[in-house]
Amino acid sequence: MNHACKEISRLASESIERELSLWERFRFHLHMAVCKHCRNFEQAIELMHQAAALMHQSRYGEIKLTDSQRNRLHKAMDELN
Amino acid sequence: MHSDPHQWINEHGDYLYRYAMSRVHSEEIAADLLQETLLAAWKSHTTFAGQSTIRTWLTGILKHKIIDHIRKEIRERNLSDNVSSDPTTAYFNNDGSWSEAPHAWNENPESLCRNEQFNNVLEKCVSKLPEKQRLIFRLRDISGDDTETVCKSCGITATNLHVLLHRARLALRKCLEIHWFGVGENR
User: 3-state DSSP call for residue A69?
Assistant: First the structure.
């Protein structure tokens, strides 16, 4: 097996960001077919990507302005008129 | 009615605050940015053409305020890229193979994502990243901003973004493997 793992792991990450070129896809899939480690890596970063997005939902989905923040904003808007 | 700023606060304040909070992680800064947004919106509301919803229009203004804020912070704190030195070599042997092979994570992604303990470990791992990688990973993967917006916020090219995200993901995967999946030590 050729040891292109360093390069392939980079492509795995970039495939989340952009569409890989035809040549990159070819090399990527060829390597993935024979390399369990890189398949594990790809699976892991996909999982982290999904988990991070869901974490955003659970951490920030319920946040609200406090009453004092809200009052301050209303006051700042009053001063405009 | 699109010209009543009090109504903007009542109808969209929480949403905008949430949007800012998830990107700047500071109640004080988020509230300040929101106020600046409302003031800027008030100044230009006569030009609001009504082609988008009020919320989309306000979010667009807030987005620019957040980008300005992040750029200023990067400039002031002089967060460097260091794209020239390559920390990813630590993960690979000279022949390009993994120095420590990634293990299979045999957990169901959906249930793992909803596991609060896992999220805590993930967050802890994110907090250990070098500052700029942390900022970029948060904007891109956690807040879900698109590549273009993150590049604009941080004043970097798409190529640099890819380099830094790859580094962040290599480090995070390893951190989770140790601290969640218990490879190499006890959980």
Answer: helix
* CB pairs A-B closer than 8 Å: 146
- Weakly modelled stretches of chain A, pLDDT under 50: 1
Instruction: Name the residue range of residue B49's domain.
Output: 5-77
Say yes or no: B91 and B175 in one domain. Answer: yes
The verdict on A75 touching B (C-beta cutoff 8 Å) is: no
Do the Cβ atoms of B122 and A47 come within 8 Å? no
User: In sequence order, what DSSP letters do the residues of chain B get, joined into one string?
Assistant: --S-HHHHHHHHHHHHHHHHHHHH--HHHHHHHHHHHHHHHHHHGGG--SSS-HHHHHHHHHHHHHHHHHHHHHHHHT-----SS-GGGGGB-TTSSBSSPPPP--S-HHHHHT-HHHHHHHHHHHHTS-HHHHHHHIIIIIS---HHHHHHHHT--HHHHHHHHHHHHHHHHHHHHHHTS-SSS--
Show me where the domains of chain A are located: 5-78
- Looking at the structure of chain B, the number of domains it has is 2
What is the percent of chain B where pLDDT is above 70? 93
Q: Do A52 and B39 touch (CB under 8 A)?
A: no
* Residue B39, domain member (yes or no): yes
CATH code of B172's domain:
1.10.10.10
Residue B47's domain is classified under what CATH number? 1.10.1740
Q: pTM above 0.90?
A: no
Pair (B98, B159) in one structural domain: yes
Please report the ipTM that was assigned to this predicted complex: 0.84
Q: Please tell me the predicted confidence (pLDDT) of residue B187.
A: 40
Q: Which amino acid is at A32?
A: M
